[in-house]
Structure prediction request, 157 residues.
Amino acid sequence: MYAFPYPVEATDLGADVDEIVQLRQDGFSTIIRLPLREGVDRRLVAEQLEENLQPRLLLFLPGVDHLELRGTDVDFSAEVARHTGDDVKQVLLETESGTEEWLIYRGSTVPALEVLEPMGEAWAEIERLKSNCQYLWIGRLRRAWRVSRLVRRRAVY
Prediction:
């Protein structure tokens, strides 16, 4: 979540003011409004959102429990409920088309420098390797997604 150090007034919202006021009345606390530069085709932006913004993105966003896409041909609303056990997080993902149950394992390891050094200078800056595994549960494990992320020694802002 991003916090802006200045207030946003209705006059700052331009032509979208009515839509944003309606979203706030619908209970949304965070609204991401994508400004379009002159010459950028709205349909192209919508197509890119349709391709890249999917309900299952919530599995990778532990701080977000509701995601909704409006204004495209494939609008959706998705919510998650999370329960954390000893070594696994159980996530229920609910959309208009149904509910999926996922098991999520997260872990991290410190890689040995002698393994990283032959890979080049930038790799020597890696402090920790974090990994996530998501398993779709349908009475038995059906599908797994694995994502790894490298954490560098220095912060990037």
The longest strand covers residues 98-109. Confidence is low (pLDDT under 50) at residues 148-157. The longest helix spans residues 42-52. The chain has three helices and six strands.
